[in-house]
Amino acid sequence: MRVLHISPLYAQPVDGLPTQAATTGFYWVSCTRSELEAQLPAIQAMLARLGGSALVDLHVSDLLNPAIPSNYDYTSVYDVLVFRRLANAHLPPLNGSHASPAPAVAAPPALAAGTGSAASSAPPPSHSLAHSGQREAPVLQRVETQPVGFALYDQILLSVHPDGCFVLENFWQRLISGPAKTDGRQVSSKMPVEPADLMLRMVNGMVDGYLDLRRTLTRQIDHWQMALLKPNKRFSNWASVLDVRLALHQLDEICEDQRAAVQDWTEALEGWPPEHTPARQHERELLRVRSRDVLEHIERVTHHIHRMEQSAETAVQMHFSAQSNRANDIMRTLTTVTAIFLPLNLIAGIFGMNFEFIPFVHKKDGFIWALVAMVIITVVLVAYFWRRRYLESEEAE
């Protein structure tokens, strides 16, 4: 368990749970689910003493549940927000820049069913996606999410993380390290002014992980499109394509839960009592801006998922359309060749009849004339069908 006292100018770690309210700033109490379960009585006593109310049993169950979807709830004293994040990703800088590297999504064993998270059953690929001739595990099958819970009080933010949570490590290090330096000059990184501000920053960082994941997902969908539309190669990896589509649907459900939770939070924020000082009014307006920014980022992720679903569906339809066109080309060529050989078979059939008196049968040059006639008929029919473009494939066009 970690406790951090955050003031407008600095952030200082605190040994143990706070025993009295902060004169300036607020306390950030962060722990894992196992730590919350082990130290629940002490944490409840601290929240009741400094926050005015302990967590109700239902909210404690939500914070301890590793399979809970994103959701928002509130009481008259505190708010509870649960937000599912990527299991492995990199957060952007604390000042809101989105120049973070693309996330490396690891292959988890599996996720609990019915939690709105993408299940994983395929092993990680051992080769590049460029080798499309081999069976590869799509990236979308390996998306795993884990919940991060927040209990928001006036001067306390309790965050509950999974073990080894990068969100906790990232923000903890950035807050206690102070202002960053660039070219020997300090770059101001404004401290969170209240618990809601810190919570929204962490949520925004988690959403940015999904935004960065779009690049990887787009490359995977492009790979499937190229594999489906290769004209001279039979595609048989339909099970993986189905897994990709199912994973996209599950990822869409994750984003829908996140959007509903943030919308509920935004609506509750509008119902907070108005502030009476210009500084507090400005801080309240910044909270609204951050909330709208988080919601806009979630909507961008949802929009991109829908576009990828349409791209995958379009690629499948184009694949079957291309297969149908190739079958039509083959049938047209076979029909044309059959039409060319029909008169030749007719001539051969006539001269193969068992009649004694047939023209050219008993002549010395009859066979030569029959061959010449058959060659002329073949050349004429080939020229006719070629002119009518019956012997050309649509790919050559």
Automatic annotation (TrEMBL):
Pfam families: CorA. The chain crosses the membrane at residues 334-355, 367-386. It is found in: Cell membrane. Residues 113-137 are annotated as: Disordered. It comes from the Bacteria. It is a multi-pass membrane protein. InterPro entries: CorA_cytoplasmic_dom (IPR045861), CorA_TM1_TM2 (IPR045863), MgTranspt_CorA/ZnTranspt_ZntB (IPR002523). Residues 113-132 have a biased composition (Low complexity). Keywords: Cell membrane, Membrane, Transmembrane, Transmembrane helix, Transport. Belongs to the CorA metal ion transporter (MIT) (TC 1.A.35) family. This is Magnesium transporter CorA. It comes from Comamonas brasiliensis.
